Every structure is written in C-alpha cells, then in structure tokens.
Amino acid sequence: MPAICLFQRSLAATLSIALVAGPALPAAAAPAPEARGVRAARIGTPAAGTQRPTTDVQLSIGQGELITLPGSVVDVWVSNPAVADVYVGNPRQIHLFGKADGEATVFATNASGAVVYSANVRVGQNLTSLDRMLKAAMPEADIRVTTVGQLAVLNGTIASPADSAQAERLVLTLLNPGVSTTDPNALLKIGVVNRLKLATPLQVNLQVRIAEVSRSFVKNIGVNLTSRDSSGGFLFGVAQGRQGTITTVPGTPTNTGPVDVNGARPGSTLFGFPSKGATGTTLNLAGRLLGLELLGALDLGERIGQVTTLANPNLTALSGETGSFLAGGEIPIPIAQGLGAVSVEYKQYGVSLAYTPTVLSDGRISLRVRPEVSQLSAAGSVQLNGTTIPALSTRRAETTVELGSGQSMMIGGLLSNSHDNSIEKAPGLGDLPILGSLFRSNGFSRNETELVIVITPYLVKPVDSQSRIALPTDAYSAPGDIERVLVGQLQGQRRPDPRPVPTMAPQPAARPSIGLTAPVPVTPAAETGDPVPPAPRKGSRKAEPVAPGFSIQ
After folding, report:
1. How would you classify residue 122: left for phi > 0, otherwise alpha for psi between -120 and 50, otherwise beta?
2. What pLDDT digit, counting tens, does each position of 140-152 carry?
C-alpha cells in the first residue's frame, strides 16, 4: 500500500499544479486559437461520450493476473473492490485479483483522461478451472461454459446423453463447493442451464421382420365293419366304426318278381353303405362270405396344410421415448356388471410393436422392444349370454438388446414340433395279428411351427424437402369411362399428377424501419455506390409483394 499512496500523492500534486497554474495566466497572454488546437491535440483530450469495458476477464476467487498497459496511467478505478481489486506496481503495470463472487468494472486512464485499459471482471468459485476439468473429464466433447450472474449456461456438442448429465453435475459441483448437488432441498449459489446438443442423431428407426410358417400333417385310417348272420335261426352281427345297413327286401323270394326302386327283388338282401367320412376317401365293400353278410367301409384321409405370416412394421422414435405401432383391430368383449348391466371392453389384435431406444455414447443403440403377432381363433372361445367371444392366439417377445446402427439380431426364434398318434380298437380283437386290422382305426397328426423375429435399428435424420419419397399410390390413376366400361381396367393409363410439395415463399428484402410505421429514408443509389436498378418498362405489370408463409406448388 505505500506504493499506492505515493502514486496517488504524485497524481494529486500534478493535478493541483495544473489547477493553480491555469487561472494565473492573464487574459492578454492567452494563446492563439491555432496554438490551443495544437496543445489539445498534443495532450489528447478525449471526446465527449460514454465508453463501456472492452475486455471480459474471468477470475477465480483468490486468483490474480498481471496486466502490462500500453501507456502510463494516472488513475485506476474499480466499481466493486469487494469483488475484484487492483494493486498498482508502476504506471505501466497493474495487478488484478479476485476476492469474492460477483462482477466488477475496472477503468485505467492516462493524464489526459483517455482510457488506456477497461475490463469487466467476473469472479467466481473455480471459474477458470471449469474448462480444464471438463476437458480432462470428457476430452472428446466440445463444451463452453458462460456465467451470467447466478446462472451458468452450457453450450457445445457431446457424444451421448450420459455426457450431458455428467457435465452438468461437474459444473454444479465446481461452482457450488460444499453443496450437495443431489439434494433437492440444497440451496445452490449458481444454477446451470444445459443447452448441450448431441453429435449423433437422436431419432431411431426400428425395422422389425416377423416371419412365421406353420405346417400340419394329418393322416387317418378308419375301418367300418357291419356284419349279419341269419343262417342259424338267430341273428348275429359284428360292428366297428360307422355303421351301414343290411336289410332283407320284404316279400316272397322269387327270381322273376318285381324289382323295387333299389333294384332288389323280394327276399333278397339290401346293403346300405355308411355315409362318407369327414375327410378323405371312403372305400365300400358288401357281399357274402361263408354264409356271413358283410358290409365294410375303409376311410383313408390325409390333410397337409401350411400357413405363412409375414409382417414388417417400421417405426421411428426419439432417444428415450417410447413408440408404439398396431396394424390390426379391436374386438369387443362384453363384461357383466352389477344389476344386470353389461359393459364393453376392446381387446387389440394384429401386428403390434412397442420399443424404447436409447442412443449411447459410441453411436450404439440400447433397445427395449416388444413385438407381438396375434389373431382371432375359434379354439378356446367362450359363450357369454348367447354371444361367442373368440380367443386370441398370440406370439409375443419382449427383451432388451444393444445394437449398432444397421445391425440385426433375432430376438425370437421358436421351432415347435408336436406329434399325435391315436388308435381306436376293439379290446382283444384289435390285437390279432392280421384280422385285428379290421377292428381298429388309426389317426396320426403332426404340427410344426417356426417363428422368427428380426429387429434392425437405424440412426436416421429427416429427409430433405427436395427428396422424392415414393408412395404406393404414386403410380395409380383413376380409369376413365372408356377404360372402365369398355376395356374393364381397374387403373388408368395416364401418368398421375405429382403430389403438391410445400415450399418456403421468398421474403422481400426490406430494410429495418424506425418505430412501427415510420419508413426509413432511402439514400439514393448514386451516393451509396450501389448499382441503380433499371426503370420499369411501360406496360409492364407491377409485381405484387409476396406474403410470408408457405405456398403450395
């Protein structure tokens, strides 16, 4: 402080000498106007006006810096010495140091009053170490911290959402030492406004391919046997499976009698074959064997079926958000309420997809995905107050995977193979080596189902407005009367009209106006040096001003 006192005393002595010598000059000895102008120019009297600080300085509490000035100064002023103060070593150097949180303004002027140095000083806790700590913690990120009063604004580019949260916690901890940043009730001296952006796209398009093939094979061999023996004075018969009829035509047996509608004569035996089986082919045989009337039918059935399902839903969602998709419908389900009231709820069915993507730091994508394929089924349906409610056969998968953009993974692969072999037989007789085949029926079925679900995520950006997006209806045009009536075409031959595309209307280049309605006086082009626009020709149509907004072309 002795140096400051000596420097201030020398400044005061100089000013007092100037003030005393000024009035002692006689009026007749006043210098000429030309001499006064030369003296003013030599001293450098500053022009009248207001000047703001031209430099921004950031200091941490307890940190200082040495400033070497371009010229000698005689006065140094600090607006808030409790925040930042100066130490004057000599007229060409000052020491600036931070003392407490806040802002201060520093002006240093020379003997003529001209500003030699001016700065706006911001002082905070660990303010200058923020950039170094952020660079050390996240070397691949580009983060800039700007402090304004009690706020710190984060700007820049980061690689992942996790880096954003980490940078915010780090800045809060450095600017608020000793205060818990996780406690919601903690009073923070400086808050943080996070304006960081991700370098990678945040929109994820998920392509799901669901392929299912179901094969079924059913084979049935059924034996139907009906026999009658009336030669011993009493009737004896053996029956297996579906039954036919063996009857005797009433009347006196004769070879020359009348013939009934079935072509049988009185006293003859009439065979009625059993009805055809539910599936397959029926072979019938009737006649007499060793005095025994036999009627047999052999059912042979084989059924092969195949069902193929292919679904390819696509959906785009932001990172961290959940997207859902449904291509199907909803079935009403009545639900009994109290006092005989019935309410209706709807159950969705079809191809549905729900997923939540999260973009990670290295461009990989963490996915929680839930694809589902369901369809109505008569198996398992229930009856409620005379209403048949169908059941739903559902194939569903739900899991969390991590993939790169464009990589695929099969999250659901189901191969089901079931066999069913059944035999219907008469006890004892069906076990005989050869004749036993007449007393048993066999049914065999095999069902195979294969389900594959493949997912592929993509990091995507919106397409440009100039890009042409093809639609299934782009090549369709309605047929005319001749094409529809005479030719019988379902689609016209003419080229369809292009779809309207919104475009930004050009904005007029208007100069800013003073106030709300007062126009700006336009300087002639000859004075500004701008090219003079050509005068409009006679008879030319006056151009209408273009309104802002969108226009459809």
Report:
1. beta
2. 888 888 877 678 8
Cα-based distances in Å from 23 to 10, 26, 358, 366: 21, 8, 81, 85
* Spatial distance between the Cα atoms of 188 and 262, rounded to a whole number of angstroms: 107
Q: Read off the pTM.
A: 0.50
- Written as six digits, the tokens of 60 are 């941490």
Token pair of 193 as six digits: 């406004």
| Torsion angle in degrees (nearest 10) through CA of 158, 169, 187, 84 | -70
More confident residue, 287 or 317: 317
Q: Which residue type, as a one-letter code, is found at position 110? A: N
Main-chain dihedrals φ then ψ at residue 139, nearest 5 degrees: -65, -25
- Residue whose C-alpha is closest to residue 438's, from 220, 224, 229: 224
The answer to whether the CB of 78 falls within 8 A of the CB of 84 is yes
Pick 469 or 19 by higher pLDDT: 469
* Cβ neighbours for 205, distance < 8 A, ≥ 6 positions apart: 314, 315, 316, 457, 458, 460
pLDDT digits (tens, 9 = 90+) for 338-347: 787 888 889 8
Report the relative pairing of strands 56-60 and 191-198 from DSSP bridges: unpaired
Rounded (5°) CA angle 6-8-11: 110
> What's phi and psi for 52, nearest 5 deg?
-105, 165
Q: What is the pLDDT of residues 240-298, one digit of tens each?
A: 778 778 777 776 666 665 665 566 667 677 777 787 766 678 888 888 877 778 888 88
CA distances in angstroms from 475 to 106, 471, 485, listed in the order given? 73, 8, 21
